[in-house]
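User: Please predict the structure of the protein below. I'd like the answer in structure-token form so I can feed it into my own downstream comparison script.

Assistant: Understood. Taking the following sequence of 194 residues as input:
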Amino acid sequence: MKFPRLLLSLACLAAGGVTLSAQTAAAAPAAKPAKLVPVSRVAWINSNAFLADEGGIKQLVRVLKQLELEFSGTQSELSLMSEKLRTLVGELNKLQAGGEANAAAIQEKQAAGVKLQRDLQEKQQQAQAAVQQAQQEKQAPVSLEIGKALAAFAKEREIGTLFDVAKMNDGLIFAAPELEVTNDFIAYYNASHP
């Protein structure tokens, strides 16, 4: 009697297993063959090195020096205004800390400080807008040319992936030094863009 129960149990399991495997086979689509990914060379650059006076991209360094020279007067003016504001704040603090408070003098210094601060902020905003405009006009074409040259450089050397570690922030944990091609690219670019 135990034998028929065991036989019946095995028969039910076998029938259930066949049904289950038939359902699984019917539900699963035919497996596609995996796409073969070609082997590719990987390298990295550090675009911060492009800006170095010595050993950087000469064309880019020249543009940056031109921009610096162009806005040196504005920078000096902003520094002078900032220093005047600091001096004014110091004088105001002395007046307020002094035993005899001259309300008219304090109010005059505060008004002068507020006006100077407003003027300084306005000039800073104007200078920032002017610098951005000049960068767009002078530096953007060079940056575009560098981008094209990087693509050509990578293609000529059969580099499939080229990373810029300067733009990866915390996303890069390790980059093997032997994979760096920064100086090679700078020499390549400077040779064709004197």
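That's the full token string. Confidence is low (pLDDT under 50) at residues 1-25.
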